[in-house]
Write a structure and sequence with these properties.
- It contains five helices and seven strands; from the N terminus they run αββαββαβαβαβ.
- The chain is of the alpha+beta class and 249 residues long.
- Strands 3-4-2-5 form a four-stranded antiparallel beta sheet. It has a three-stranded antiparallel beta sheet with strand order 1-7-6, with helices on one face.
- The radius of gyration is 33 Å and the shape is elongated.
Length: 249
């Protein structure tokens, strides 16, 4: 290779070497961090944080079950009764956005105690249920009574909650981390070590609703003289944090 060709090759490779060196400089902190090993003692702590709040919303599942000799007849009766249920909810001040159909089905009903014979359909059952958010807590009893009076024969709930879940969750997180930090300090001191750093944090948990047992339909329907009593109580927000520490002398 003559001198001119050698000079040209070196001139071409020099910028590539510079770029490669710069790339190594940029990647080296990340690479070093990724390859960093834990030299101290590992400590895993699980701690629970709990916050109690007064609920400001309640969710109720309600609807109508009807039975007819044909699907059309069962559906026609169900539609009429569900229309009355929707009107009762509107009259109680429930907004349309807080009413959502949760289940709708048409199922055949078969004759009972038939042996060695083909099952025979004797009727059809229609189920139509809606999920309702009640924002006026003190009005829950009156809403439930109005639903029963208008033909609702399916009712589950209420399930109480808080609308601003993030605020309660953050409070529970802070309480859980404070417990974890105190426990880590105790373990470290007992072992003659110190908490060097937190390696990882994970969490699990959320709002724990307090469902209220609603009385059977016949019992509620017979109590037209007084609203059904409902107590909201409190709801609990629970968070469990799993924190891994590195302890060192």
């Amino acid at each position: 290779m003559n001198a001119n060709k050698e000079y040209l090759i070196r001139a071409y490779l020099r910028p590539l070497a510079v770029h490669f060196a710069l790339l190594l400089c940029l990647l080296s902190p990340a690479a070093a961090h990724a390859e960093e090993t834990i030299t101290g003692t590992r400590l895993s702590i699980s701690a629970e944080g709990e916050v109690k709040s007064v609920p400001d919303i309640a969710t109720v599942s309600t609807g109508v079950v009807t039975i007819g000799s044909t699907p059309a007849k069962a559906l026609q009766e169900n539609t009429a009764k569900m229309d009355a249920v929707f009107k009762a909810l509107t009259a109680a001040g429930i907004a349309a956005k807080d009413i959502q159909t949760s289940d709708m089905s048409v199922e055949p009903q078969y004759a009972q105690n038939i042996t060695n014979k083909t099952p025979r359909i004797v009727a059809y059952q229609v189920n139509n249920n809606v999920s309702v958010i009640i924002r006026d807590i003190k009005n829950i009893g009156a809403v439930l009574d109005a639903l029963i009076a208008q033909g609702a024969n399916q009712l589950n709930g209420p399930e109480f909650s808080v609308e601003n879940k993030s605020g309660a969750l953050d409070q529970a997180r802070k309480a859980a981390m404070e417990k974890a930090q105190k426990s880590a300090a105790v373990y470290a001191a007992a072992a003659g070590l110190k908490v060097k750093r937190i390696i990882s944090i994970s969490e699990q948990g959320g709002i724990v609703p307090r469902p209220y047992p609603v009385r059977p339909m016949m019992a509620m329907a017979s109590m037209a003289s007084a609203p059904t009593p409902v107590s909201a109580g409190q709801v609990t927000t629970e968070i469990t944090v799993n924190v891994e520490y590195e302890l060192a002398p």
